[in-house]
Amino acid sequence: MTHTAYRRSPHFAEALQAAAPTRVGSVASVLGLGLDITGLDAGVGDIVTVGEGTAAIHAEVVAASRDGIRCMPYGRVVGLSAGTPARSLGRPLLVPTGSGLLGRVIDGLGNPIDGKGPLISGPRVPLDNESPHAMQRARITTPLQLGVRVMDTLTTVGKGQRMGLFAGSGVGKSSLLSMIARGTDAEVSVIALVGERGREVREFLEDDLGAEGLARSVVVVSTSDEPAVVRLRAAFLATRIAESFRDGGSDVVLMMDSLTRVAMAQREIGLSAGEPPATRGYPPSTFSLLAQLLERAGTGEHGSVTGIYTVLVDGDDHNEPIADAARSILDGHVVLDRKLAVSGHFPSVDALGSISRVASRVASRENRQAAGTLRKVLAARRAAQDLLDVGAYQRGSNPMVDAAVDHQDAINNFLQQGMDEQTPADAAWVQLHQLVRMLESPR
C-alpha cells in the first residue's frame, strides 16, 4: 500500500484519532446537584468522565457558557472536589436496542440490573431521536386491545394513540398498568418505572407483572433515590427502545409510571442549571420537554408506539400544571377516582370523566352506540344521586335512572375487573351489548 493510499484508509483515521492528545478539564465547583467544569470542549448532551480510575463517574452536560459547562452526574458526588480532572467522551449517551432486551430489566442508563448476565442487544444508538414527521405518520384506524373491559369499550384506544392515566397517589395506577401489560395484544411492552420506591419495583415485577408479562416486556427502572438526570434519561431510554421496535414494524405499547416524576426530575435539572422558576416552581424547559417526549410516541410509517402515561396529580387536583399540560398534548385521558378506589371498585376508572379522542375512528358504529347508551345511563344516575341518597327520587321520573338502579349490580360487574382477570376486547364488547339490551328492556 502506498503512503497516499494508507493515509486515505479508515485505519489511518482511527490511528490518528487514537494518537490525538486528550484535553483534560477540571471541576471548578460542586454546588447542589451539579458540577461546574472548565477547560473542556463539550456540547449539551455530551458525556463527561469526572475523576480517575474506579472512582470516576459519568456526568451529562446540561448547560454551557463561555466560562465552562454545567454537568449533572449519573452517580454520587461524594469525594469530588474542585480541581478533580474531567474528560469529555465526545458523544452522547448510547443505549441498547434489539429483541435481546425482551424479558430484561435495565436501569436508566441501559445497564442490566436483573442478574441475568450481560445484555445481548443490537447496535447501541444515541438516546436522542427525532419524532415521526407529521405528514409521514400513519393514521390511527385500528383499536388496540388492553384487556381491561372499561377501557376497551368506553375509552377505546387505537394503535399509536397516547393516553394518560390521571390519579392521585395510591389509587391503583401501577396495578392498572400491570393489567394492561398482561392483557394487551401488542407485540412488545416497554415499561418505564421512573421515580418509584425501591421496595415496589420487585413487587411490581413478580406480583403485578408476573413471568408471563415480563417475557414480552422490557422494563426500565430508575428509583426515587437516583440522580435527577438518571430518572429523566430513563423516560427517554424507554421511549428510544420502543421506537427501535416500531422501526422494525412492531406494534409496541409504552407504559410510563409516572410522567409527573419525569417533570419533577427536569425541574431539579433546570433549576440547578440556572433556569428561573415559573408555574409552581417548574422552569419553562419542563413543559417543552414534555412535548418532546410525548410526541415521540405514536404511529410511524410501519409500526406504532401506543403510549400510556400515568400522571400523579398533586393533591387530587386535576388542573395542576403538569396534569393540564399533559392533557393538552395527549390523545385522551382516563381518570382514576379515589372514592371508587376506597370503596373497593377496581379498576377505579371514572367512566364519565374519561375520554378517548380517537374512539370514534377505531370503534364501529354499533359499538359506539352501545358505549354511548351506557354513558347516558351512568350520567343520569349521577345527576339523580342526591335525590336517591335522601329517598326523594320518584320511580318513573327518568327511565334511564330506573334502569341504572334496577341493574346496578350488572353495571358494576361490567365496570369492575379482578387483577388476574383478562377479558379480550371482542368478549368485552359482547358483554357490553348484553348489558345495554338489559338496560333498554322494560322491567
From TrEMBL:
InterPro entries: AAA+_ATPase, ATPase_a/bsu_AS, ATPase_alpha/beta_chains, ATPase_F1/V1/A1_a/bsu_nucl-bd, ATPase_T3SS_FliI/YscN, P-loop_NTPase, T3SS_ATPase_C. GO terms for molecular function: ATP binding; ATP hydrolysis activity; protein-exporting ATPase activity; proton-transporting ATP synthase activity, rotational mechanism. It is found in: Cytoplasm. It comes from the Bacteria. GO terms for cellular component: cytoplasm; proton-transporting ATP synthase complex; type III protein secretion system complex. The keyword ATP-binding applies. Residues 159-340 form the AAA+ ATPase domain. GO terms for biological process: protein secretion by the type III secretion system. NCBIfam families: fliI_yscN (TIGR01026). This is FliI/YscN family ATPase. It comes from Arthrobacter gengyunqii.
